[in-house]
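Recap slide: Peptidase, sequence and predicted structure.
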Amino acid sequence: MSARKTAMTAFRGLQLGFLALVAAYIAFDWDYGLWWNLTPLALAYAVVITVNRWGGTPDAPGVAREPVETAPPVTGRWSALNSPADRTPSHGIHAYGQTYAIDVVAEPGPGARPGFTALWPLARRPARYPAYGAPLRAVADARVVRAHDRQRDHLSRTSLPALLYLILIEGSVREMGGVHRILGNHLVLDLGDGVHAAYAHLKRGSLTVREGDRVRAGQVVAACGNSGNSSEPHLHFQLMDGPDPDTARGIPFTWRGTGVPRNGEVFETPEPAPAGPA
């Protein structure tokens, strides 16, 4: 087991230890200060803070890796959120291979995508968002190395109370559940040369491929959903140097014809040309 994997396992174990100690303190009325129970929680966050800042690049320190060019994973009109064109790590952490990750949401036209609300509605069904069910495509010829799509698509977290719930409660519970609960339904493709593409928050039951399958660039492999640690239906995409997000480090990317869209930038990608005869 790698040091990074061991650290992430220890992080989740310490969180569970904190909950177990609190439960035992209440159940057995142990005679010691409750604050002692916070020790494993403090250690857990010391571990994850270290991991989050641990080696954002697979290359030598101070040596920037050239972005890997791929086709875009979506077609149509989309906009970018949490883009590595604006900052790295793009999501604030290096953990889960997210250093150069990007989120994209469908923007087919003005008013098509519901906005953030202060209080009401608290949540919306995922089908209210134009990204939900949108086809996602292989960014290169590749082999499928991870494929999971059994988790449900939950309601949006796009009101202030729902977002606070996601950040303060749901996110912590998902961290304890491991990378599967963070990414939700997800797919990892091996592009070769040590490069892997991860697609996260996919729609339940939408995968068209299985582990071991070979795919061609432009092939539809899944649909956009709202599973895992997600506030609304969107695609979370990243390149990384291994198939396991718990141990992988991020790799910069650029999309052919699009580059790396900045936060809020709207971009359009055409449907791929039909494949010729074999």
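The chain has two domains: 3-52, 68-269.
The first strand starts at residue 68 and ends at 70.
(End of recap.)
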